[in-house]
Amino acid sequence: MIEPLIILGSLGLLFGAGLYIASRVFHVSVDPRLERIESALPGANCGACGLAGCAGFARAIVHGSAEVVGCIPGGEAVSHLIADIMGVKAKEVDKQVAVLHCAGRDVADRFHYVGMKSCNAAALFQGGPKSCLYGCIRFGDCALACPFGAISMIDGFPVVDEGKCTACGKCVDACPKDLYDLRSLKKLVHVACRSRETGKATRSVCEVGCIACKKCETVCPFDAVHVSDNLAVIDYDKCTSCGKCVSECPTNTIRNFREERKAKGLWPVKVRHEKNV
Amino acid sequence: MIQQFPKTLIVGPGPHISGADSTSSIMWSVVIALVPAFIFSMANFGWYAGAVTITAVVSAVATEWAIQRMRKVSVTITDGSAAVTGLLLAFTLPPGVPLYVAALGSVFSIAVAKHAFGGLGMNIWNPALAGRAFISAAYSSALFMPKWPVLSSIFSGDIRTLDAVTMATPCAILQSDPAAIFQHYRLWDLFIGRIPGSIGETSALALLIGAAFLMVRKIIDWRLPVAYILTVALLVILFPVRAADGTIAGFWQASFWADPVFVLERSLAHALSGGLVMGAFFMATDMVTSPITKKGQAMFGAGCGVLVAVIRVYGGYPEGVCYSILLMNTVVWAIDNMTKPKFFGERAHA
Amino acid sequence: MRRTFKKGGVHPPDMKERTRDVPIAEFPAPALVMIPMAQHFGSPALPVVGAGDKVAKGQLIGKADGRMSANVHSSVSGKVLRLEEKFTPQGRACKTVVIENDNSGIWADEIPCGRDWRAMSPKEIVEAVAAGGVVGMGGAAFPAHVKLEPPHEKPIDTAILNGVECEPYLTIDHRLMVERAAEIITGLRIIAKAVAAKEMVVGIESNKPEALKAMNAAAAGGGIRVEALDVKYPQGGEKQLIAALTGREVPPGKLPFDVGCVVHNVGTAWAIFNAVAKCVPLIERPLTISGDAIERPANLMVPIGTPVGAVIEHCGLDQKVKKILSGGPMMGMAIADPTIPVVKGMSGILALKKVPHDISGPCIRCGRCIEVCPLGGIASEMARAIEAGAIVDYEHLHVFDCMECGSCSFVCPAGRNLVQYVRQAKEEASYRRELHRKQQAKKQI
Asked: Cβ separation of C87 and A110 shorter than 8 Å?
């Protein structure tokens, strides 16, 4: 009875001592700030900062080659934490979200696609199966790419949960039709279409596509909307989210996100003040 | 004016023609190949053996359906893979096993050994054998009997009643007293299968008919089963054994070769007894749990053979087919790594 | 025993009977041709005409953009209507010149010409081939002049002509060899002169006895070896053909140059002959139109830029058609738009009623993809790595060395789209390289 206890106990002691010595002998001294920054980061390793994971970003900050506001998913809160650790002042971060520029839920197929159920794969076959060559292919590469679960396929169409979105930009990269943009949460009016086809051609395949009627252009008091190459494009430097173009748009292509964001408590955007250290 | 194309055209990646076989055609071919053994099992053990088999198959298919519904993946019970598992599991069980044991074994095979690892194609261990291993642990009394029944009245009798006589299986005799094997069984009986044993394993003849079909259909390759059985046959000759009087008998002694015909016949008896033929042609060749290259499959077969010989000659079990395959399943990844094909033109590099 | 390549390969059904003995007929130029600028491997050509310009047959309309590119010529005489973005059969969109045919058929200046190729230097030959916009006509559409200019440190000893045509249904190389054997053989001599190769070999699969006879007759006494090869797909792959004919293996990532070989398709040899000896650029190409949904299968000489719908109408289409393909059934691309134009690399148009079911189940590790891979790749592992996004494994699994012959998908019992996985991985890798390049450029600014 006593032998196993002695054997196991001494084995434990032996290995413990080995581990202790190893940790001492092979000890690598690190900047203590590195560890603190790493623990402040979200740890999703999403790569939105452009570096290899959160550890890489932390190293870059300590090294001075990255900005303290570089962590996009972490947003303001994390920037301030890092700024505290580094003893510098953080600038105000404008919270951004991904906006989908397509609303073509009812666009029909031109042909029956078989093969990998991936937008990027399907897009290589003459632009994909949808009649609108500019619109969503609906296989959900964006939802798969989103590391934060902010995009879900609802009835086979992607929907962004702006509360979860951290503007990491993975969906922007993933979409073969380039349908996502990162926009400030303060900007409420967006064009839900990317079609550069003529109005007639767009109309024939999609009820909510931009038909380039230019009504928005006429009605905008701030000269912020322009139809170029058959598509209404908003200049967000000028846009005040007044919503005039939204009510004028005959196809409901230009949409106002105000009510939706209000309901979720995302709007009005709470402006946090800069923190001085 | 140019020809318009119908809107129903299919667009997708090539190739736009395909070979004859599909997963389900392969699985159903295996089922067909097991039919001779199934018929023989009822000839040998009566109607109850058939009832055990059908219970196991139905239970396996039902479990597959339930789990696939639960996992919210598409239900693929018609592809035959669950039926194969149920069939093979039943074939490894004694003919008098209670029906609920067979059913539970199938549930374990499909639910734990297959779907817990991710379903078809992802399992590491042969599901049927894992199911058998489960039964041997959970219902060992149903599996480990000193005497096994064999039926005198073909097809009609009930194996659980007294018209069955019981005797030790060939494997048990080969382990305990190899010299006496031919006092109990003739080689011809071992080949035909009028011997006690598990439901599907006794008749080498019926199994070989099915195996020949699979080889003609190019579903199994000869290398694995041949490597497996030859290794066993060779090693049972080469392994020295300790006789009752404590002396060690081995192939290097002249006395060992006093009756060379007996030595070869005993080796053949090893090849034909127990589940070796069934294991070699139907269990070890399971595509999912065996190596992917031909070379790797031969290595796998030889490895199984070594384990069977060790277990049979020196081990505590009279039979080692089940565990030999399960153990080799475990190292398939290593065999795959060792037998990667050389890439085109790589030799020119070095 | 006849020769073939050693490793892997499959035997798809031949399906060539319906067009094997149909002579190549001239297809009249349509009222409208749409000529894409990207018909070849490499950078797209730069258009040198604009809307409203008058063009003559054979006139240059797209200039090669760099060395790895090819000239594009008008296949009809007429007026340029517009330049637009259009899909090519390869599935991508590119700049396309739309020309209205005036049916006058007037050739551009100095075409055709008569010149003695024997008097031309290798450099002049390469220039003539480049000027003629000749690209590989077997499918990959690799610019032909690049293959005629081996680097100095890599001497070429063997010029090989590829008359294998291992894709089912296609018979166009076969017909070309039967009908224009002399021109093809001359093309081979031109190629051999350009690369200074001593040996000349033609590889033809033994299921084309007529072509073998015609080519043997044309090559008689000229130091050219015409070899009958065992039938096996993908023998028409460059590396497989070299292995079958010379026993040499081109290492991964290397080119036929590296083992002293240059391989051209018989159609390319014919186009090289036209460009060098007759100054005629590549503006038309022979096509096989076949498949069970085609009512009158044919071999046709079709002007580049002709919409496939027009060609199919000429041959009659069964409306029960399920798939329309550009190229063969193994490596061809499915298309759905009748206005997609015929391009230089297109070897046939197939319309099929019977297509495989769209089953795509899990891998059952049967190992058949490994057995048939002519390169010794492990398609099942590649697909698994690609599915998991395990980019680190791509290199040692040779994902980028795959030539996408489709043998693995052909035999896969689970119906997995193995080739598509590989194509997707390559696509993603090039996208990432591009992204990286952009980021680097941004950093420098």
From this structure: no
Segments forming the whole domain that contains residue A248: 188-256
- DSSP letter for each residue of A215-266: HHHHH-TTS-EEEETTEEEE-TTT-----HHHHH-TTS-EEE-HHHHHHTT-
Q: Which of A185, A211, A231 is the last residue of a domain?
A: A185
Q: Is C35 in contact with C84 (CB distance < 8 Å)?
A: no
Burial of A117 (0-12, 13-18, 19+ CB in 10 A): middle
- In chain B, which residue's Cα lies nearest the Cα of A129? B11
- Residues B11, A116: C-beta atoms closer than 8 Å: no
Q: Do the domain assignments include residue C126?
A: yes
Nearest to C332 among B3, B16, B81 (CB): B16
CATH number at residue A156: 3.30.70.20
- B163 min Cα distance to partner chain C (Å): 44
Query: A111, A117, A130, A137: best mutation site toward chain B, by most B Cβ within 10 Å?
Result: A111
B-proximal residues of C, 227-246, CB under 8 Å: 239, 243
**One domain for residues A163 and A197:** no
Using only the alpha carbons of chain C, give its radius of gyration.
21
CA pair distance C172, C24, nearest whole angstrom? 8
Q: A109 CA to chain B: closest CA distance, Å?
A: 8
**CB-nearest partner of C91 from A118, A124, A173:** A124
Largest CA distance in chain C: 64
Terminal-to-terminal C-alpha distance of chain B: 59
Q: Which residue has the tokens 């009820």?
A: A207
Distance CA C3, CA B342 (A): 21
> Degrees (nearest 5) of the Cα angle B9, B10, B12?
150
If one counts the domains in chain A, the total is 3
> Could you say which residues from 212 to 251 on chain A have a Cβ atom under 8 Å away from some Cβ of chain C?
none
CB pairs < 8 Å spanning A and B: 26
Tell me if A121 is assigned to some domain.
yes
Judge if A98 and A178 occupy the same domain.
yes
Identify the residue among C238, C248, C365, C375 best suited for mutation to test binding to B, counting B beta carbons within 10 A and taking the highest: C365
Question: C259 and C387: one domain?
Answer: no
Domain co-membership, C249 together with C376? no
CA distance C232 to C374: 10
Which of A185, A208, A237 is the last residue before a domain boundary?
A185
Taking the CA of residue C149 and the nearest CA in chain B, the distance in Å comes to: 23
This prediction has a pTM of 0.87
Return per-residue pLDDT of chain C as tens, 445 residues. Answer: 468 998 899 999 999 999 999 999 999 999 999 999 999 999 999 999 999 999 999 999 999 999 999 999 999 999 999 999 999 998 888 999 999 999 998 999 888 888 899 999 999 999 999 999 999 998 889 999 999 999 989 999 999 999 999 999 999 999 999 999 999 999 999 999 999 999 999 999 999 999 999 999 999 888 899 999 999 999 999 999 999 999 999 999 899 999 999 999 999 999 999 999 999 999 999 999 999 999 999 999 999 999 999 999 999 999 999 999 999 999 999 999 999 999 999 999 999 998 888 778 899 999 999 999 999 999 999 999 998 888 888 988 999 999 999 999 999 999 999 999 999 999 888 888 888 888 788 767 6
Residue C298 is encoded by which pair of tokens?
A: 């044919």
Instruction: Identify whether C412 is part of a domain.
Output: yes
Residue C199 lies in a domain: yes
Same domain for A181 and A110: yes
**A98 belongs to a structural domain:** yes
The whole-angstrom distance between C434's CA and the closest CA on chain B is 24
Which of C335, C417, C435 lies at the smallest CB-CB distance from A126? C335
Q: C297: which DSSP letter?
A: -
Residue A20 covered by a domain: no
- Host domain of residue C244: 117-277
Is residue C134 in some structural domain?
A: yes
A18 falls within a domain: no
- Let me know whether A131 and A209 are in one domain: no
Tell me how close the Cα of B271 comes to any Cα of chain C, in angstroms.
26
- For residues A181 and A136, membership in a common domain is answered with yes
DSSP reduced 3-state for C46: strand
Total domains present in chain C: 2
The shortest CB-CB distance from B344 to any of C333, C376, C415 is to C376
- Residue pairs spanning A and C at CB distance below 8 A: 35
**CB pairs B-C closer than 8 Å:** 189
